[in-house]
Amino acid sequence: MKAVKQLLSGNGRQFGMIFALVVLIGLFQWLTGGKTLTPTNMINLFNGNSYILILAVGMVFVIIAGHIDLSVGSVAAFSGIVVAMAMRDWGLPWYAGIILGLLVGAAIGAWQGFWVAYVGIPAFIVTLAGMLIFRGANQWVGKSNTVPVPSEFQFIGAGYLPEGGPIPGYNNLTLLLGLILCAAVIYGEMRKRGRNAKLGTVNPPAWVPMVKIGLLCAVILYATYLFATGRPGTSFPISGIILGALVLFYGFVSNKTILGRHVYAVGGNRHAAELSGVQGKKVNFMVMMNMSILAALAGMIFVARSTASGPFDGTNWELDAIAAVFIGGAAVSGGVGTVVGSTVGGLVMAVLNNGLQLLGVGADTTSMIKGLVLLLAVALDVYNKTQGRPSITGLLMRNFGGNKPAPAPAAVDATPEMPTGTKTVISTDA
Asked: Which residue, among 20, 72, 47, 6, has the nearest Cα to 322 in the 3D structure?
């Protein structure tokens, strides 16, 4: 028992959500007779949910700041139809189409951010209006027709790492990617121990990081094997590469930059943050604009994978993204949440949906189960807070690239330099 506590202490709590994900995968692997952990299924799972995970990366900042965005599905659909028609009717090359889509998302985000940040209308109302406006705009611009996209553009949503390399039977670039991730895990753990030693902090026994590294690398290498051994022409998807880059970038922004710290400050207590010099309006504006940019990117990836933009793209995407963020440990009141936690929460929902489909469960039952999982996850978190115990999801994800606990204040001398009693104060003021 002591060994388990040592393993799960400190930063080891970060493995909790990953362990939960692994348990869920193992459960469906058993229930489906081994259909879950197959190369084809894992590739399809990642391809089919990458756009939702990208939305979750943006949504976590919105929720941390204390807002909600209901328009992301409509914004994604509108950006997708604009890009598709620009490439078809204007002859825009695929890379110019991507730039156009991002600019459309930025313009929409600036529009919604203006109403939220500078006019003061609640984000719920602004984005609800945006959901209606851009859903209608999608169908008006595209005349409710399906618009195909060129094959070059499809690469961002349906492409894979190229074949080739010295090891036959495997996608060599996927293998290299897995080795790089393992090396990053080892480097991060060793760097952490070195930093603790310099600060005089007691490190856990050497076996603790070794076990952590071993478990994480085992998961990474097994996933690498699955992606590298798919049918010829498939490997780790390009959309997964884009998602990974976004997680790393936004994880850095949230944890290591002034803007990221300001987002947490505004979400925790807006008035206190503004009194401390944080520009709350600017933060809210940037958060809303960033969300729409990522929504446009998610819409383009979906259109690229489906080879065409349609009038019903983006339906209920916002619900999946919001669910992923809350399952990943974000707080409804704002101020709490992590990029990695939201991504893992999205993967939990993706695996749940995929496993139920493999079991032949209908869409109606699947929807009810997903709703119950979301409700129970948040209810358990709230219950622990009301009982005075730490939030489970908060503890699990606290040190995984996000809100870290503040260090304990340094001890101070309890003896005052001069009397501070009431009589003394009165006489001094006089």
From this structure: 72
User: Would you say residue 410 lies in a domain?
Assistant: no
Cα 105–chain centre separation: 18
Domain that holds residue 289: 15-159+238-405
The secondary structure element, H or E, covering residue 308 is strand 308-309
> Does residue 91 sit in the same domain as residue 115?
yes
Report the range of poorest mean pLDDT among 104-118, 176-190, 331-345: 331-345
Alpha-carbon gap, residue 121 to 115, rounded angstroms: 6
How far is the C-alpha of 301 from the C-alpha of 171, rounded, in Å? 23
Calculate what percentage of the chain has a pLDDT beyond 90: 51
Query: Is residue 362 domain-shared with residue 226, that is, in the same domain?
Result: no
Q: Are 264 and 62 in contact (CB under 8 A)?
A: no
Question: How many CB atoms are located within 10 Å of the residue 205 CB?
Answer: 11
* Chain segment 239-279, per-residue pLDDT in tens: 999 999 999 999 999 988 999 999 999 988 888 988 888 89
Q: State the CB neighbour count (10 A cutoff) for residue 148.
A: 15
Residue with tokens 């990836």: 301
Is the pLDDT reported for residue 141 higher than 50?
yes
State whether the Cα torsion 92-153-346-264 is positive or negative. Answer: negative
Which residue is listed with tokens 């884009």? 242
Same domain, 275 and 323: yes
Among 176, 201, 236, identify where a domain stops: 236
Written as six digits, the tokens of 395 are 């503890």
pLDDT of residue 154: 93
Shared-domain flag, residues 371 and 399:
yes
